[in-house]
């Protein structure tokens, strides 16, 4: 793999991702300033994740906006593969989905793909992925969604609802398509091969267009869905993609729930957060304080700074000050880490309280099979 | 395809099947006279379908018998792909399953694979195959099963129950396995590829060994199941296979529900039965009466005779007389057809009454998802 090579698939992200190249490779569209203005005009808000390019790419977001302006409805759909506890990187599309839901006043479906993680992880049982699905659901609910307009789909629990839709999709996708899209081989298990049709299914759960905010690594599933949508008499799903959240240990992969040290979980205690960041967070600083003061740090590769940019410091002025101070050498790596630790622990304190309350709310959120 | 070539897969049967060769090809065991005796000793009956080799092959039927003799339980499972109305050939394994159920006093699951037929038939919608599933269920119920011990599984209706089991199976089967077993290609749709795990699922619906009476064309599915059973901590399913029921128009394929003229449906009126048999039933007779009287007919290739042997004339003496009379030329082809027409119409008169009553019983039989 050469320096500018990278891999982005739903099950494997590796290398230093060049997002402009990825847009070309995947055939998506960069979010233009015109599109940003349109969204701003409708929502009366300039969301920092859009402004900062955390959401950077889309497919037919324009159509959704135009339809909305004509008074046509749509719904939102996003999800998560429950291979472990929720980490803070997962919250990015969920928080953004919540914002879209509130601004556009639409329904949202959140899919927990316990079957997928069972198929793709040799060491996980279906009981385990199902247990993580419920754990992850608590984090989702803790973000404050409205249960009237928000339903959680757990694949093994809601297969009765999903399967007849998935079957329509599955009949139109062949093994070649999945080879070309996901790089499947003859050794891929038949659960994995079929699975993409279950990730497609919620796109057609309401008879309306759908907009999917999601990590760009999940785009291949919906490329297939878009290819076959018209064959089953449906509209193509529209997508809006966020960048991959770097692992604590630095660029070269997305934050993975399976790798303990590279990951801050929503269930981590303040002490654990502090230790993980101080010990593992990849730093853009210089080897010693003297050099750092002289040469300054590099915020663009510093994971602590990136976490502030992506999630924990929505205020542009404050963020800019941190950027400039770190770059100039005024702010030391340890100090930058302290800022992030405080932000995360502040967030997690409230989040963990809400997460505890979510245990009483979960039933309201679970989709009921007809 | 040379004269002794034939194809037997779950979706395609063609050619003149040599069952001894098929046993070798599939790696099953011929039902031995020892096994027949064992079954006779337990059941106190010499079932004509066993005696005549309509059920001719098995996998581990011995183990089921031995376990039974040790007081260990088992359950039965069979099914049908609802691509159309039930034809009389379908009833063979169902009637035999009923006999086994009564003799061994065990539970029976009957699976209607509406999803499979949707995946495999380009022209059928899921609504259509589901409608045929309910139609076929009526024929099954009409045979007089005990609803306390008999449950009907309709795949799209019971996917909530089947999917978690199927997922365990699917994780252990890869695309290569399905290529080798079913001849799937890169163009096979992903519903079909996954489907075999759903046909496996009922094997593990109870925590007991299973015995599956079924048409030998369905054996490949359970060959896969048997290959992976121990990997998921389960016992291999045991099987007992019936021969393919010839189409009305003669050997060279099984009776297919999709081909109108080669098929007698359980819903056919007496007139239609008469017309179909007189017009289409492949005859082993001579071109004219004079030659027939002189040379005699060939009952071994005569479809009317075969239907009597396989299903409609359980009495050996009566059957032998028909055989001898036809062979000697004493019985004409038209007379043989008349015997069959009368037998079928007599059967269908009662069957259609019971089928009508089954509409009131169906709810008792449908498996309820937990």
Automatic annotation (TrEMBL), chains A, B:
Residue numbers covered by motif 'KMSKS' region: 254-258
Gene3D superfamilies recorded: HUPs, Tyrosyl-Transfer RNA Synthetase
GO molecular function, one term: ATP binding
Keyword terms: Aminoacyl-tRNA synthetase, ATP-binding, Coiled coil, Cytoplasm, Ligase, Nucleotide-binding, Protein biosynthesis
Localisation per UniProt entry: Cytoplasm
Transmembrane segments: none
Pfam family, one: tRNA-synt_1b
SUPFAM superfamilies xrefs: Nucleotidylyl transferase (SSF52374)
Chief place where the protein resides: cytoplasm
Enzyme category, top tier: ligase
This enzyme's EC code(s): 6.1.1.2
Coiled coil (residue ranges): 341-368
Tagged with keyword Nuclease: no
GO biological process, one term: tryptophanyl-tRNA aminoacylation
Protein origin, superkingdom: Archaea
Catalytic function, reaction form: tRNA(Trp) + L-tryptophan + ATP = L-tryptophyl-tRNA(Trp) + AMP + diphosphate + H(+)
GO cellular component, one term: cytoplasm
Function text: Catalyzes the attachment of tryptophan to tRNA(Trp).
Family under the similarity heading: Belongs to the class-I aminoacyl-tRNA synthetase family.
UniProt name for this protein: Tryptophan--tRNA ligase
